[in-house]
Amino acid sequence: MRFLCLAELSLCINKLEQFLEDETTLVSLFPMIYSPASYTGIIFDLGDVLFKWSLNTTTTISPRTLRSILNSPTWFDYERGRLGEADCYAIVSSEFDVSVEEVRRAFQDARNSLQTNHNLIHLIRELKAQYNRGLRIYAMSNISLPDWEVLRTKSIDWSIFDAVFTSSAAGERKPHLGFYRYVISATGLCPQRTIFVDNKFDNILSARSLGFCGIMFEKEPAVRRAL
User: Fold this and answer.
1) Residue 14 lies in a domain
2) Fewest beta carbons within 10 Å, which of 28, 155, 199, 217?
3) Could you give the CA distance from residue 147 to residue 165 in angstroms, rounded to a whole number?
4) pLDDT tens, 151-184?
């Protein structure tokens, strides 16, 4: 077994010190030891984070079937802007053996059930005030254009966001890296200095692979403490 001589050991220590002096390296390796003041941006998901909604509808479509529709390739193309609403509803009607009218009514019920997470909205306001506009806030969501047009009418102060990015506008959806790169390019954000909050693990993994500090949204108090 070979032991390092003093000179070699000193060289290794110097290289390690240079490595750890790079703030980007530290944030990437140990993101959770940094306070929010160390970050310049936060990206929030919309659905199931800033807005809650229900899978229960007044139709014959069960919550399980509705979730299956939302996780289907057809719906993914709809969220990417590759299908219009009428075409999407017609295709999923055939794929899941339900009437087009039932599909339309189910998603109208889902839209009507949208509830704003006012506690999280309040937290965002607090953070922006605390860091005196030194913190940029963005939203990034897998959402079709028709659903986004409905969501944006909800009574919240949308001006708290520096920008809102939708999959239908980007032509990509999470967890595909193309959507994240689209947002990075549009904002100039440094991933290593940006927090990413989402309720889906796959989306968090993709964000972390690019250097973002990913926070899984499961329980609001835990997210509040992390931020």
Assistant:
1) no
2) 155
3) 13
4) 999 888 899 999 999 999 999 999 999 999 999 9
